[in-house]
Amino acid sequence: MANLMHRRLSAKLSFFAAFSGAVFLCSSASARSEGATDQGAYIAVTSDCVACHTAPDGKPFAGGLAMKTPLGTMYSTNITPSTTFGIGDYTEADFSRAVRKGIRKDRNNLYPAMPYTAYSKMTDRDLHDLYVYFMKSVQPVETAPPKTSLPFPMNIRSSMIFWNILFRNDRVFQPDLSRSEEWNRGAYLVQGPAHCGTCHTPRGFLMQEKPSESLGGASLGSWYAPNITSDKISGIGSWSAENIKTYLKSGHIDGLAQAAGGMGEAVEHSFQHFTDDDLQAVATYLASVKPVHDPEDGNTSRFTLGRATSSADRVRGDQPIRSEDNSDMTGAELFMGNCASCHNFKAEGSRDGYYPSLWHNSVTGASNADNLIATILFGVDRHVSGVEAFMPGFGGRKSDAAQLNDEEIAKLTKYVLNTYGRPQVSVSGAQVKMIREGGAKSPLLALTRFGMAGSMIIITLACIRGVFRRIRT
Question: Considering the entire predicted model, what is its pTM?
Answer without folding.
Answer: 0.83
